[in-house]
Specification:
Four Helix Bundle (Hemerythrin (Met), subunit A), Rossmann fold, globular, single chain, alpha/beta
Length: 664
């Protein structure tokens, strides 16, 4: 234990305290750091809920760095959000490197498609007239060429503009489109340079999507990451959702159409196949496009004929013709035949990669139609926008077995942490562990060093109807209550909604009222990106954000700018979603109570995330308002309240000094 003891770094009189005279060590942080060190040394798995302010990133980074530097262990740190990745790589790791007497290297690992291929860039420049149509595509390609000569990173995030998908896909590095050591640009290749850094680094920082994709590939005998001894998953409350998305199938009419258009566009006579004048393949591309239109039209028409309330779930194979699969395979064959006539390897490989994409699409579609993956849920989604989009999806009913087999039995130490992992009082981790298949682990629930009893007051209005019994009346009265609490703090608030429909209704009803009070309103869904909304909110102290799902977590606004968080409804997932519906049915089939076992704990964790937006530092003060009366009136409401930090609660009847206009 002495080798990995983090006290010398984090404790009183440690390396950080010697560097920062104002540093106050946190007992919760030290407790977590020691638990992480034990889990690495044993080895074994650890689950830690660390409240806001514990400093959990230092608590796992310090023992991870010690293990990497002293025990030569390779460590992967995975996060859900880009913001946390940026904090780790831009702030926390450089600081620890400056104070710890240990040599170590840390790199951010990105998926291959994030990097530019210098060879493909030159090919795209030579063929731009055959590949592109719009002026902005030509302009962006020229800009990327200049950027490629000065960038040290070579990844898309280093560009200072949003590159068009059509342009980036023409120049990105691709696994099936790589000449390896035969490539004339191999020595300068950004992707291979990054891979060499990855293989020599002690500490790898990734996102959950890449981490889970790597696990899935390992199950097939491949892998994106080198072997590692320790996996630390921060923001671990999102692991089940990310695993479900990346261990399943997603296929859309838009994606198929886009792939075919890149190969050959009959209107413009442009595309990869036109460059090489592969006439048979071009004709087959057209036949495939017609088959795709016919197939997705048939799926949309079938969906439209289903009874009202149909959620898109496909419970057994439909028996639809696999003609699109067959046409995609014929197209792959025609491209392969055409590629065999091309002499230059660098030209042939572009066609070989296109052939692989077509075969992959055919295999995915056939797998979805036959429902060939066991214990998966299959469904259809329709989006009726300007271009109708049909999406075919499949996800595992239970990601636990896959994570258990691919991660927890293979990696000696897994540390899972977040500010919100457990439910109830005393805190229990059963829900999380059951959902992700983690059967044996040490658990640790650490409170926050913040003084919630003096920093937060929870307000519970008593005069709102039950939203389950009277949804329309609840919405009207909840919007009036929102106005009351916004008036109390003169804005400075997040209002968190569980549905865009209610968010839009509140925006319509309260927009003019807020404008009269000079309170700026930023409403999600009106076109402004989330990061820009948060920046504008911070810049205008008397403002308010109306936010839906993505604002419940991962948004950090310390100080007076955020003094009020209003939670409109308890955040229960919509039980009609095909995947959730199937999971609830599975619990019921096993004799369990899906509401108690799944819906309540899931909603509790999300409520804790919403609550956690308010207090980010020891000096923050404010109120949290929960408008949903079920938190007081239903037996399960106690579970929600017990899961929140201990702070004063006020039950009251909100009133407005100035009446609102009639709310419809």
């Amino acid at each position: 234990m002495a080798d990995l003891d983090p006290v010398s770094i984090l404790g009183p009189g440690g390396a950080i305290a010697r560097r920062l005279p104002s540093y106050e060590h946190r007992s919760e942080q030290l407790t977590m750091a020691r638990a992480v060190a034990r889990a690495i040394e044993k080895p074994g798995h650890l689950v830690v809920e660390a409240g806001t302010g514990v400093g959990k990133s230092f608590a796992y980074l310090v023992p991870a760095i010690l293990a990497a530097a002293e025990a030569r262990k390779k460590v992967v740190v995975s996060t859900h959000t880009i913001a946390l990745q940026e904090q780790l790589l831009g702030k926390d790791i450089p600081f620890l490197r400056s104070v710890m007497p240990h040599e170590f290297t840390a790199v951010l690992v990105k998926g291959r498609s994030n990097y530019i291929s210098l060879r493909r860039l030159e090919v795209a420049i030579q063929r731009q007239n055959a590949l592109f149509q719009r002026p902005e595509e030509f302009d962006q390609l020229a800009t990327i060429r200049m950027w490629s000569r000065r960038t040290s990173d070579g990844s898309r995030s280093d560009l200072d503009f949003r590159v068009l998908p059509s342009v980036w896909e023409a120049v990105q590095s691709e696994d099936g489109n790589c000449l390896g050591r035969e490539c004339p640009s191999h020595q300068d290749c950004f992707f291979f340079r990054a891979r060499r850094r990855m293989r020599s680094a002690n500490l790898l920082v990734v996102n959950h999507a890449l981490f889970v994709t790597d696990l899935a590939l390992r199950g097939e005998g491949f892998g994106l990451l080198p072997d590692y001894h320790v996996a630390i998953l921060d923001e671990a409350h999102t692991l089940e959702a990310v695993a479900g998305e990346h261990l399943g199938v997603q296929l859309s009419s838009l994606g198929v159409d886009y792939t075919l258009a890149r190969l050959y566009n009959e209107r413009s006579r442009k595309g990869l196949l036109a460059i090489y004048k592969l006439n048979e393949a071009m004709q087959q591309a057209q036949r495939t496009r017609m088959a795709a239109e016919e197939f997705f039209d048939r799926v949309a028409a079938w969906h439209a004929r289903q009874p009202e309330g149909f959620n898109g779930r496909i419970r057994q194979p439909t028996g639809w013709s696999e003609s699109l699969c067959e046409e995609l395979r014929r197209l792959a064959g025609a491209i392969d035949q055409g590629a065999s006539t091309i002499e230059k390897p660098e030209d042939r490989i572009e066609l070989t990669a296109a052939e692989g994409r077509c075969r992959s699409l055919a295999d995915q579609l056939a797998s979805w139609m036959r429902q060939s993956a066991e214990d998966c849920v299959y469904w259809i989604e329709l989006e009726n926008k300007s271009r109708r989009r049909v999406r075919l999806a499949a996800a595992p009913l239970d990601v636990g077995p896959s994570l258990r087999n691919l991660l927890f039995t293979e990696v000696p130490t897994c540390v899972l942490t977040s500010a919100t992992l457990c439910v109830g009082s005393p805190p229990r981790f059963d829900f999380l562990q059951a959902r992700i298949g983690l059967t044996v682990a040490e658990t640790l629930a650490l409170g926050s060093p913040f003084d919630y009893a003096h920093q937060v007051t929870v307000h519970l209005p008593t005069n709102l109807p039950d939203p389950s019994d009277q949804p329309a009346l609840f919405e009207q009265q909840a919007i009036r209550a929102i106005a009351h609490y916004l008036e109390r703090t003169q804005g400075k608030a997040f209002v968190l909604f569980t549905s865009y429909r209610m968010l839009e209704a509140a925006t319509r009803a309260l927009g003019p009222w807020l404008a009269r009070r000079h309170i700026a309103l930023f409403a999600q869904g009106e076109g402004m990106p989330r990061s820009k909304m948060v920046d504008a909110f911070k810049a205008d102290v008397n403002s308010v954000i109306f936010g839906a799902d993505s604002f419940w977590q991962g948004v950090d606004v310390p100080g007076e700018a955020l003094s009020n968080v209003i939670i409109t409804r308890l955040p229960f997932s919509v039980p009609s979603h095909p995947l959730l519906e199937a999971r609830l049915e599975d619990i019921r089939r096993r004799g369990g109570n899906p509401f108690v076992e799944y819906q309540v704990p899931e909603a509790v964790i999300k409520l804790k995330q919403g609550f956690g937006r308010l207090i980010r530092t020891k000096t923050d003060r404010g109120i949290v308002v929960i408008l949903d009366p079920r938190v007081r009136t239903k037996p399960y409401g106690r579970t929600f309240l017990k899961s929140l930090p201990d702070c004063p609660r006020v039950e009251e009847t909100p009133t407005l000094r100035e009446p609102l206009p009639q709310i419809e």
